[in-house]
Write a structure and sequence with these properties.
CATH architecture of the largest domain: Alpha-Beta Complex
Strand content: 25-35%
Helix content: 25-40%
Bound molecules: zinc ion
Order of helices and strands: EEEHEEEEHEEHEHHEHEHEHEHEHEHEHE
Number of domains: 2
Distance between the termini: 10 Å
Oligomer: single chain
Amino acid sequence: MRTVVIEAPGKISVDTRPDPALPGPDGAVVQVTTAAICGSDLHFYEGDYPLPEPVALGHEAVGTVVETGPEVRGVDVGDLVLVSSVSGCGRCEGCATRDPVTCLSGPQIFGSGMLGGAQAELLAVPAADFQLLKIPEGIDTEEALLLTDNLVTGWAGARRADIPPGGTVVVFGLGAVGLCAVRSAIAQGAGQVFAVDPVEGRRERAAVCGATPLAPPALGTVMEATGGRGAAAVIDAVGNDATMTDALSCVRAGGTVSVVGVHDLNPFPFPALLSLVRSVTLRMTTAPIQRTWPELIPLIQSGRLDTSGIFTHSMALADAADAYAAVAARTADCIKIALTP
Ligand SMILES: [Zn+2]
Ligand SMILES: [Zn+2]
């Protein structure tokens, strides 16, 4: 089968590798019909994480089940499914909360060197009953892909920001996750949502959803809009030193900073004293993917949560190198790319 591989920063290829075997009696193999490139895939591409050996990339996929182990009960061969980007054992106390991050065996992420990459023709999925969801009626391919990671992450980032009814929110970073966070914050009852990104076209995309576009630096405008108090809730969908510092500056005393952006491996210079005396709550997470599905799916089906416009391009898997270059350019017109094997 063909799979997208990164050998060194910036060096993407589409390699042929042996078809994956069934990963145990509770596993399944999925033939990927569409995968997506995520902002967090860029950490390998841009050299933030070491690459001692080539890594098969991708953690966002939908496809058709082509093989199941004897213990699989929830899906059958032929089912159209979406795959949680984060994988848990499905059997432990942590997985019982339906948040794979808390799996006692240690959560695993597809396409990070732990499991196979989703940007491929075939994907081996352990604990298939936990990781796979039959694509519900009224959910299209793009929506299903967003339910593997980005929409869930944006939604969870907003939930964990403890947005008070009508409260002022700041969202840093308007890539796919940030744009999902903007829409989630509004759906969860935010008042004014400041959408911060250096790229004007990305701010315009957030404005279309009802946010107030704001070019960085954000602090002055946020303070002015809140009578000098700061925002009740801040969501950082970038996760670098600059945005985390800005997030902690923009939040009001007693407010919450919710980080869903993925930091590099370096320590962050945390303003501990200032955060303490201002009683700031800091939360950081990857998304509790499986847990949010029952909440998000009806909102999408009923049209209350619109995810249109997040995917901007569709390309062939064979053109993955061009697709990665386009995503890494972080332009206004390219937010998220679907890859078709
Ligand atoms: Zn992702
Ligand atoms: Zn587990």
